């Protein structure tokens, strides 16, 4: 899976106030703060005019400690050189 990422968030009093998602393969850093907007590599993002989730794709996953490195090689194709 070449589209893996690292994500962290801060929740204060039950409300999300900060989020950061980094995609190392593409060197893309998404950041957002409550009331401060969202950014991609420091450039403000705009809300889409789309109102439907038709065609949307969502996925989740969590790395597990102790996974065999050979198993990871079968999951992901080799990185382009």
Would you kindly provide a written description of the structure presented here, covering whatever features stand out?
The protein is mainly beta. It has one helix at residues 69-75, and strands at 6-12, 15-23, 28-33, 37-40, 43-44. A 5-stranded antiparallel sheet has the order 1-2-3-4-5, with no helix packed on it.
Quick overview of this protein structure:
The protein has 81 residues and is mostly beta strands. It is 9% helix and 35% strand.
Average pLDDT works out at 83
Rg (CA only): 16 Å
pLDDT < 50 runs, ≥5 residues: none
Q: Strand tally, please?
A: 5
End-to-end distance: 16 Å
Q: Beta-strand level of the residues, as a percent range?
A: 25-35%
Envelope shape: extended
Largest sheet, strands/sense/barrel: 5 strands, antiparallel
Structural class: mainly beta
Quaternary organization = single chain
Strand order of the largest sheet: 1-2-3-4-5
* Tally of contiguous helical segments: 1
Architecture blueprint of SSEs:
Layout: E1 6-12, E2 15-23, E3 28-33, E4 37-40, E5 43-44, H1 69-75
Antiparallel strand pairs: 1-2, 2-3, 3-4, 4-5
């Amino acid at each position: 899976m070449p589209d893996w990422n690292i994500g962290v968030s801060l929740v204060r009093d039950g409300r999300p106030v900060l989020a950061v998602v980094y995609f190392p393969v593409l060197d893309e850093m998404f950041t957002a703060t409550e009331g401060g907007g969202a950014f991609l590599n420091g450039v403000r993002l705009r809300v889409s005019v789309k109102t439907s989730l038709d065609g949307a794709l969502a996925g989740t996953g969590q790395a597990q400690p102790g996974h065999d490195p050979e198993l990871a090689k079968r999951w992901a194709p080799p990185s382009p050189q």
